[in-house]
Design a protein that fits this description.
The protein has 268 residues and is mainly alpha-helical. The chain has one domain. Helix content is 71%, strand content 3%. It has 11 helices and 2 strands, in the order H-E-E-H-H-H-H-H-H-H-H-H-H. It has a two-stranded antiparallel ribbon with strand order 1-2. Helix 5 packs across helix 6. The protein is elongated and about 60 Å long.
Length: 268
């Protein structure tokens, strides 16, 4: 009788090189059970755009962005696109992962196979990216139909939204790997709501005192809003590279933390 051998993994036991299996499983689960939740996540920012961009925008008129006057609807639309990417990524990488981690025991089962923690991290983050990409395409179509796309560079908002979703998904999953109870998960809205309200979503941060501005500029959503707004309006500054770099760092830190946490939880 042959002896049972341990699953073969590469990169110090972190990866089995099959993150695609995680993605395929997630897509099947989404299409069979969660597609209504996916749709609701798309329509929420669209309704905000109709109410704020058209309703309130008719009263406000235009707003100044780096010396250029643009319609209020064109100002908040890219911000809502960034918010949509954040919300979709956070949902997929927190509550979804929290259930799989603590109740479904799905990751424990996966890691008994040749899959490694890095496969799980990459697979779950990629699922969030796919969701963010779908949101980006749909929302840009709505923006174009409403005449709120002011630059051909708006097409680059699609990969930008995917980058934003990747940053939030990786950090969200890293955060969730430390959570044990539903009460701890309730900390999420306490962080997301202030970011949504104050990250230059509905008005420039210049309305705040300088000390508050510096605090807002540390928010990841502010960087996402500014990045998407530059692409859809065509009003660029050199800070675009800071915004891109911010999310690349978020992604790198999140993947490393998630991989190490899953290895510590289930393989140590």
């Amino acid at each position: 009788m042959s002896a049972v051998t341990a699953p073969r993994r590469r990169f110090g036991g972190l990866s089995g090189g099959n993150a695609r299996a995680i993605i395929e499983r997630g897509l099947r689960a989404t299409m069979s059970n969660n597609y209504l939740i996916i749709l609701s996540g798309f329509f929420e920012p669209v309704f905000y755009l109709f109410s704020m961009g058209i309703g309130l925008g008719g009263i406000i008129g235009s707003i100044d962005v780096n010396g250029t006057s643009i319609p209020y609807g064109a100002y908040i639309a890219p911000a809502l696109l960034a918010v949509s990417a954040m919300n979709g990524a956070i949902y997929d990488s927190t509550w979804n992962v929290f259930f799989k981690l603590n109740f479904g025991k799905l990751y424990q089962t996966m890691l008994l196979t040749s899959l490694g923690p890095l496969d799980v991290a990459i697979g779950e983050i990629t699922l969030a990216l796919l969701r963010g990409g779908v949101y980006a395409v749909g929302f840009l179509i709505v923006m174009q139909a409403m005449g709120l796309v002011l630059s051909p560079f708006a097409l680059l908002a699609i990969p930008a939204v995917i980058l934003i979703a990747a940053g939030f998904a990786s950090m969200g999953m890293a955060f969730t790997s430390y959570m044990k109870t539903f009460q701890q998960m309730d900390w999420l809205p306490m962080v997301m709501l202030p970011m949504f309200l104050f990250s230059a979503t509905f008005y420039p941060i210049t309305v705040y005192p300088e000390a508050i501005q510096l605090m807002i500029q540390a928010f990841p959503l502010w960087h996402g809003v500014e990045l998407i707004r530059m692409l859809t309006t065509g009003i660029f500054t050199s800070a675009i590279w800071i915004h891109i770099g911010y999310f690349l760092v978020m992604l790198g830190i999140g993947v490393v933390v998630v991989s190490r946490r899953l290895r510590k939880l289930f393989l140590s």
